[in-house]
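User: Let's play a game. I give you a shape written as C-alpha cells, and you guess the letters that built it. Ready? Here's round one.
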C-alpha cells in the first residue's frame, strides 16, 4: 500500500513540474520584457511593479481588491438567485462589483508577472499554476460580466454560475499564492532575522581594506559587505533582501552595489533600495576602527 503511494506521488509531481517547465522559460522571458526587467537601471517600471517606491511588495496588496470585489459579486448573485423578481438591486450591484474586480485583477496580473519573472524551481512551478488559475478566474468573470450587460436588472443564471466557477479558481489560486510566500519564501524579506547587535566585533585589519572593493565579512554569524571610500567605511548586510542574493558578488558602481541575481541596487552608504525588485533596505552596520582593526555592529531598524 505504502509502495504505491510512494511511487505515485513523485510521478504526479513530475507531471505538473514538466508541464509548467514546458512553457515556463518562454513565459518568463516574455514576463521580464513586459514588466521592465530587461531594461537598464534604474528600471523604473520593474521597481514600480515590485513595490520598491512603497517599501512593500505591491502584488499582495493589490490582490485584495479583486478578491474583495468578486466576493461581493458572489454574495449579490446568491441574493439575486434567491428572489430574482424582487432583488434586481443585487443584480445591479453584482455588475458593478464584477467590473471593479476585473479592473483590479489587471493590476494584480501585471504585478504578479513582475514577481514571477524572478522565480526559480519549485516556486516558479507553483507560481505558474497560481497565475494560470487567476487568468482562468479573470476570463470567467469577463464572460460573466459580458452576459450581465444586456440587462443588469435581470442577469442570467449563466452569468452567476460562471462567476461562481471563477471564484473557485480564485480561491485555489489564492491558496497557491500563500504556498509561494509561506512555504517557498517568495518575496519575503531575507534579512528579517538579522537582529541588532550589542557589541562591536573586529572583522578585518584596516590595512587590508582597499578603496572601492567589496569585502565579505561575518558579524554575529551574519554575512556583511564592507566598502571603503577614502577614510570612510560603510557596511550593509551581504544578503539581498529580495531573495537572498550575495551582494558581495554583485557589481559596484560608486557607492551602489547591484545584486547578481535579479539586479536590485542598494546604496552601500545607507542601505537604501535604489532599484527593485527588492523593496526592503539592506540592514546597516556601524563601523569603527580600533587597534588597527575594522569593527562592526549591527544597527537597529532598516
Ligand atoms: S536576490 Fe533578487 S535582486 Fe537580489
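Assistant: Ready! My guess for every position:
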Amino acid at each position: 500500500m505504502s509502495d504505491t503511494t510512494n511511487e505515485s506521488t513523485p510521478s504526479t509531481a513530475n507531471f505538473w513540474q514538466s508541464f509548467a517547465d514546458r512553457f515556463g522559460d518562454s513565459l518568463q522571458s516574455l514576463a521580464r520584457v513586459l514588466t521592465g526587467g530587461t531594461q537598464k537601471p534604474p528600471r523604473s517600471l520593474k521597481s514600480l511593479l515590485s513595490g520598491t517606491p512603497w517599501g512593500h511588495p505591491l502584488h499582495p496588496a493589490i490582490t485584495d481588491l479583486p478578491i474583495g470585489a468578486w466576493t461581493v459579486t458572489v454574495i449579490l448573485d446568491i441574493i439575486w438567485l434567491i428572489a430574482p423578481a424582487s432583488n434586481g438591486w443585487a443584480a445591479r450591484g453584482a455588475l458593478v462589483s464584477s467590473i471593479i474586480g476585473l479592473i483590479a485583477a489587471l493590476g494584480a496580473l501585471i504585478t504578479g508577472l513582475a514577481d514571477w519573472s524572478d522565480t526559480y524551481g519549485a516556486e516558479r512551478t507553483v507560481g505558474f499554476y497560481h497565475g494560470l488559475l487567476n487568468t482562468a478566474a479573470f476570463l470567467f468573470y469577463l464572460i460573466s460580466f459580458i452576459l450581465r450587460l444586456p440587462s443588469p436588472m435581470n442577469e442570467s443564471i449563466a452569468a452567476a454560475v460562471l462567476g461562481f466557477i471563477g471564484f473557485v479558481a480564485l480561491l485555489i489560486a489564492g491558496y497557491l499564492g500563500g504556498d509561494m510566500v509561506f512555504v517557498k519564501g517568495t518575496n519575503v524579506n531575507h534579512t528579517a532575522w538579522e537582529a541588532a547587535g550589542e557589541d562591536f566585533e573586529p572583522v578585518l585589519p584596516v590595512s587590508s581594506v582597499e578603496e572601492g572593493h567589496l569585502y565579505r565579512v561575518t558579524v554575529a554569524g551574519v554575512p556583511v559587505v564592507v566598502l571603503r571610500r577614502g577614510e570612510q567605511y560603510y557596511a550593509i548586510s551581504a544578503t539581498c533582501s529580495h531573495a537572498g542574493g550575495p551582494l558581495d558578488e554583485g557589481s559596484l558602481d560608486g557607492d551602489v552595489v547591484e545584486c547578481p541575481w535579479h539586479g536590485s541596487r542598494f546604496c552601500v552608504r545607507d542601505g537604501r533600495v535604489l532599484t527593485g525588485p527588492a523593496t526592503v533596505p539592506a540592514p546597516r552596520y556601524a563601523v569603527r576602527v580600533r587597534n588597527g582593526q575594522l569593527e562592526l555592529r549591527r544597527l537597529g531598524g532598516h
